[in-house]
Amino acid sequence: MKNLLAKKQHKRVIQSPLADNTILVGFAQICSLYSMNCCKLSKVYGPVFTLYLGMRPTVVLHGYEAVKEALIDHGEVFSGRGSFPVTDRVSKGFASPCDPTFILGCAPCNVICSIIFHNRFDYKDQHFLNFIRKSNESLEILSSPWIQICNNFPVLIDYFPGSHKTFFKNIAELKQYFLEKIKEHQESLDMNNPRDLIDCFLIKMEEEKDNPQTEFTTEALVNLVNDLFGAGTETTSTTLTYGLLHLLKNPEVTEKVQEEIHHVIGRHRSPCMQDKSSMPYTEAVVHEIQRYIDLVPTSLPHAVNCDTKFRNYFIPKGTNIITSLTSVLHDSKEFPNPETFDPGHFLDKNGKFKKSDYFMPFSTGKRVCAGESLARMELYLFLTTILQNFHLKSVVDPKDLDITPVARGLISMPPAYQICFIPV
Fold it and tell me: Phi and psi for 119 in degrees, rounded to 5?
């Protein structure tokens, strides 16, 4: 088995798959690929090493320096989209305890709905409820060990039963719904007065209808809408759900945020983005939530667009690249005691908000999350609005709350918990 990472100065190929800095990952190990502790592997093999996922070599970049050098300094080369076979296939009441997952899923979803459909849904609307259910189920499936196996042995996708079949079925039903909404838009389209993203796309389709090379097609629009919902709804809602769990776990942090809200905003108006610059502690808390939960541990796979030499290693064109965002967000040099939830990681000695180049929950470079700005706004506004109007109460002693993720595949999924929202 050839080692892709032949050192430049020797111009040789390492024959043993375990020699130098190449690691052969077995079938069982693949199940936990996205949640494995790359830190231990990096100590042995360095910040750049190869994992053989099934029969496919993938390069892992570990640590801020390696991730930054690849995605920023060599951003063009490392901007290719890596292979993720399962999703690739898809792309052709008060004062009582409750599970906040549903309501925190509805709010971000309706934000996306207003952008795409020019419409918000009632939380009791059956189409909307079905939409939320299928989206939640699909995300859970994507974070399962079986999907990691399918991604590394794509032949299983067609010939083996499993949860990926449910995933495909859910996405097919969602795409059919999106197609129906697109047809409704076509029937009422005003070329001079676009209402939302679908209208804008349809206008572009009309303008390029005589171009045989156009990428503005109905199929492309359906896939775009599906991607926007998948990337713009579940990630934000999961961060909010996990964020409230950490606020329950750390009531002293919650109290400080509410004190800042009371001082800057008060009780008689809603929070707005202009308030954020005057609320350094709240901004630090939002950043620390994202840093600590490490929502997408390895981001989505990248690929190199051409043969390239990186840190004296040769990486052939098309090689998948895994960037360990965990290794950046939990770097002990930048964030002392990284396994401790501490908003002080983003505050200077004067209590002012402190930016960090290591803050990469949205990845970085040319494939940074396109919805980063929207997500930042949603996280700040939703959390401040909740804490402006409610005290948070746990049904168990905060020190007994379990914050361990129940899954760490594509997404770090928070455990289920109960919370009481007590009106202020």
Answer: -160, 145
Q: Are 284 and 55 within 8 A, CB to CB? A: no
Identify residue 96 by its one-letter amino acid code.
Answer: S
First to last CA, the chain: 64
Instruction: For 364-383, give the DSSP string.
Output: -GGGS-TTHHHHHHHHHHHH
Distance (Å, rounded) from C-alpha 37 to C-alpha 200? 44
Residues 339-348 have pLDDT tens digits of: 999 999 999 9
Structure tokens at 329: 């967000």
| Stretches in the chain below the pLDDT threshold 70 | 1-37, 87-88, 90-94
Structure tokens at 55: 């029969």
Is 369 annotated to bind a ligand? Reply is yes
> How does 67-95 read in b/e, with b if 16+ C-beta sit within 10 Å?
bbbbbeebbebbbbebbbbbbebbeeeee
Note the pLDDT tens digit of each residue in 9-59: 333 333 333 345 665 555 445 445 444 567 778 888 888 888 777 777 888
Predicted local confidence at residue 18, as pLDDT: 38
In the chain, the largest separation of any two C-alpha atoms, in whole Å, equals: 70
Residue with tokens 């045989």: 212
The letter for the amino acid at 347 is L
Q: Which two tokens stand for residue 351?
A: 């209590």
CB atoms inside a 10 Å sphere around CB 194: 17
* Residues 424 and 94: beta-carbon distance below 8 Å: no
**Both tokens assigned to 259:** 């004190």
Q: Are strands 320-324 and 407-408 parallel, antiparallel or unpaired?
A: unpaired
Residue 402: CB atoms within 10 Å: 13
User: 3-state class of 328 per DSSP?
Assistant: helix
Q: What are the tokens at 178?
A: 């999106």
Percent of the chain with pLDDT over 70: 89
CA distances for 416 relative to 102, 231, 392, 403, angstroms = 11, 21, 16, 9
